[in-house]
Amino acid sequence: MTDSLDALKQQFDIPGKVAIKAGKANLTVIKIKTEHANATVYLHGGHVTHFQPVGRKPVLFISDKSDFLPDKPIRGGVPVCFPWFGQGRQNNSNPPHGFARLLPWTLASIDEESDGSIVVLLMLKSDQHTRKLWPVDFELGHRITVGKQLTMSLEMRNTSNDDLTFEEALHTYFVVGDIHRTTVHGLQGASYLDKVKTGKQVQEDELVTFTGETDRVYNTTGTMVIDDPVFGRKIIITKAGSNNTVVWNPWIAKAKAMPDFGDQEWPGMVCVETANVKDDAIVLQPGGRHVMTTSLSVESR
Ligand code: BG6
User: Which of 67, 75, 97, 261 has most ligand 1 atoms within 8 Å of CB, for mutation?
Assistant: First the structure.
């Protein structure tokens, strides 16, 4: 561990800007500091756990009860769900949300752009272990750009000899001042699958507000805004290469049932997830490539 950490530090540290360290439970983390924002990325799960523009509150929620273990997902930040979402299109895939959030990713490169932003490229490639869970060959890149905005881009390549189908989500957990007063803009007119109430497609006519457990898969390619009057800010979420946005808050009972989530944490978070799931799963021919990108930025209200 120490040797490989030393090797990574030697190869990738940028003094004053990028430091590779042993993070929680000795998992390797990349600490990034730019003129505009700070961020933290774990190689475990290819997981962004922290993003904070200078002078503002953190943007990403992370549970105090989160596991930081090699075989468990991190609760909060941005889990990468891949190659399926939940239990997949047939509802029988395991582990839930796929294996990408459970595996150590490889650090491929760290670069500083001319505008001062830092770009981290992580890779996850098929191997003996992934083929047991999903019998295909692939290369998945996760490009994380930390600057005024946080931009995350999943770049998937089919290196198999056959077509393949996958689902994906950048399962982003946001900090909010109070979920009861939080609204999500940008979804009016979109249809959604309501996983809590009906399990059917519903038309969204309103701003999204929160009065109970919420778990919805919206059909949308548009920009979302989380309006947070308590923290006096708006979080703007733009995306490309994504046909779905998942909106989730576990509320009281589900929060209690999750061992890696505090019983009282649900009013302070909401997930708005850039995704391609269910009927919008991506089909790639051999050699085919697909990119899904989301960017997060913060403005005062
Ligand atoms: C959301 C799903 O994206 O993730 C929910 O829509 C799920 O159904 C939630 O409960 C959390 O999933 P997990 O596997 O991280 O507990």
Answer: 97
* 47 neighbors 19 (Cβ within 8 angstroms): no
Per-residue pLDDT reduced to its tens digit, 128-170: 999 999 999 999 999 999 999 999 999 999 999 999 999 999 9
Distances in Å between the Cα of 37 and the Cα atoms of 32, 34, 51, 54, 118 are 8, 5, 7, 5, 10
185 is catalytic: no
DSSP 258-280: -TTS-TT-GGGEEEEEEEE-GGG
Find where tokens 């083929």 sit.
131
CB atoms within 10 A of CB 179: 19
pLDDT in tens, 203-220: 998 999 999 999 999 999
Model confidence, pTM:
0.98
